[in-house]
Specification:
Blueprint lengths: L1 H11 L15 E7 L2 E6 L4 E4 L4 E4 L12 E6 L9 E7 L5 E8 L12 E5 L2 E12 L5 E13 L9 E2 L2 E2 L12 E2 L8 E5 L5 E6 L20 E8 L7 E7 L3
Parallel strand pairs: 12-17
Antiparallel strand pairs: 1-2, 3-4, 5-6, 6-8, 7-9, 9-10, 11-13, 14-15, 14-16, 16-17
Amino acid sequence: MKYFFFILLMASFSGKAQTVSPQVMNAAGEHRQAPSISISDNIGEVFTETQAGPAIVITQGFLQPEISDGVSIAYSGLSCVDRDDGMISISFSSLNQQHSEQYLWSAGACPSGNCDNRVDNLKAGDYYVTIISTYTTIAGKVGSDTIRRGPIQILNSTEACRLVVYSGVTPNRDGQNDTWFIENITEFPANRVSIYNRWGVLLYDEQGYDNVTKFWPKEEMLNKLVSSTYFYIIELGDGSKPLKGWVELIKN
């Protein structure tokens, strides 16, 4: 008799299973009400409900088709050999209006341990990210999903790092072009940079120019410099011929 009652009860239940991406495990499920049965479930686990009378145990397997989970990944490899300027950026969208995400990156991607959805200055290699999304459903229930991605492969480059010399400087303290930037100069640590005025007078001579601690023009030089065209010689220190050209300094 009990067996017959169980069969009739199951036949009368019309429920809708959740569908989630294969990467979402142990996610909080939904709460649904059907005649005589109230069901709360948790993806990937057995769920249990009772009603007045015999206990009913319902088990659900992994019903997880390939569907979008709202994660988009953009990434770029190194710009030149061993430059360590790879990038990964994560975009996350959710059907839940109230949601927040935490991003846990694999070793080497986030030295500070508190990176958000973008990491920069990456070496070549494979990286992984775990996204923990916490949300509130329209029914007011708080849930949490865990989504894992990887490996995300950041490729090295086969191109040698080439020097890019910018031709303008505007030292007006606005944070843009305040100093003369030479792209990839740190790839040539034995470099030497010399700057002359139009009369051939040496104004600046520095070994190991690095755009940060060694740069032109220094603050103390500005009072002696006028808006004009200056000329440079860059020796890379690798046996190649010196690079020669001009740079325009504009003072507002």
